[in-house]
Write a structure and sequence with these properties.
By secondary structure, the protein is of the alpha/beta class. Helix content is 37%, strand content 14%. It contains 14 helices and twelve strands.
């Protein structure tokens, strides 16, 4: 069990927010597989405050989805505070996470994401504003406020220990660490030793969650044993594998891990996913959104390139059914199908605002840093 403020999670597993992935359809699919905390796509604080139309769809939750978890991005304490105020006042979520881990250039060049913890006073102000707003709920209701971050900007600008201590001191209910720098992006290997360092640096009553390179249930068990962290955050490892959450639930409870699905069972999950996307987005957008998931589901299976290509171009459920019928449903799940999925890329220079590294104590909000586009 994992306790985050007033929330009690029977399984210490969190789905990481992923742009274009962790919408209400994917979260429902994952929740059907196993327990955990399932976070929606990253929401821009300014877009939430100004009620941007595109953001409204992204903060949708199923009627039975609990706890409802939302991740916010922002660089201005005032805007972050107002965004959390709206979440509390309109009962939009049960948990708020702050994003200080995004390594995408369009975010870091504005001083946001993984770039922001370098500015310690500004970072503290943002966390403080969010925690204060989260505690203003009527009837004593308080939303737990958590922080997700990276090791630092690069090897020469490591920020996670200071950021973890500051977040805890400002009232964060938990901190999560993706054990890579922003410069690494998603390349190489996550340094789990950093998670252990954070666990030792943060007060024991503040849970520390580990993120990075969890591609199988055994990875989660190994991370928790090696680092002493209180839970895990899973991102790319569940792409095309929502049943990973059932495997994680079993492994962390000490039960036998369920037998991996056959290709026929995977096909049934694929169809379920497309149905949920259509229900959420409408047929045209839902089918288009489903295309990118096809190759992830088929990862490692002996499926011909032409069939893979056609699945990546589906135009509706009827065509999907025709193609799924061509699969050999008896094929067992490949033994070598674990491992990285989705974006990996290569390490590179982190784009920052001009003069960003000059003074870590400068708490000036970067000009033009608040953006309207949610989703990362």
């Amino acid at each position: 069990m994992l306790r985050i403020g007033p929330l009690e999670l029977p399984t210490p597993v969190v789905l990481a927010p992923m742009a274009g992935i962790t919408n209400v359809a994917f979260r429902r699919l994952c929740r059907e597989q196993g327990a955990g905390l399932y976070v929606c796509e990253m929401i821009t604080a300014r877009a939430l405050v100004e009620k941007h139309p595109g953001t409204a769809e992204m903060i949708a939750f199923d009627a039975d989805e609990t706890p409802r978890s939302m991740q916010l991005y922002g660089v201005d304490p005032v805007t972050i505070g107002r965004a959390v105020d709206r979440i509390v006042d309109e009962d939009l979520a049960d948990h708020v996470d702050l994003n200080f881990g995004c390594p995408v250039p369009k975010v870091t060049r504005r001083g946001g994401g993984a770039a922001l913890p370098y500015k310690r006073r500004l970072f503290a102000s943002i966390v403080r504003a969010a925690v204060t707003a989260a505690g203003r709920g009527s009837g004593g209701r308080q939303l737990p406020l958590t922080v997700k971050m990276r090791v630092g900007i690069d090897d020469d600008h490591v920020t996670f220990l200071d950021a973890g201590r500051i977040a805890a001191a400002e009232g964060a209910a938990a901190v999560a660490l993706h054990a890579r720098t922003a410069a690494q992006r998603y390349s190489g290997h996550a340094d789990w030793d950093r998670i252990a360092e954070l666990r030792a640096a943060v007060p024991a009553d503040v849970p520390v969650l580990g993120n990075g390179d969890i591609f199988a249930a055994a990875d989660a068990v190994a991370m928790m044993e090696k680092t002493g962290c209180d839970g895990v955050v899973v991102g790319r490892g569940c792409l095309g594998r929502p049943w990973l959450f059932g495997e994680l639930e079993a492994a962390l409870a000490g039960r036998p891990i369920p037998t991996p699905p056959t290709l026929g069972e995977v096909a049934a999950v694929m169809r379920r996913h497309v149905e949920l996307l259509i229900a959420h987005h409408g047929e045209r957008k839902g089918v288009r959104d489903a295309r990118k998931h096809m190759s992830w589901y088929l990862h490692g299976f002996a499926v011909g390139s032409e069939l893979r290509r056609e699945l990546g171009m589906i135009d509706g459920l009827e065509r999907l059914d025709e193609l799924l019928a061509q699969l050999d449903g008896d094929l067992p799940f490949p033994a070598d199908a674990d491992g990285p999925r989705g974006r990996q890329g290569s390490p590179g220079h982190v784009t920052l605002p001009e003069g960003w590294l000059d003074d870590p104590e400068d708490d000036t909000v970067p000009a033009g840093a608040d953006v309207m586009h949610s989703g990362g």
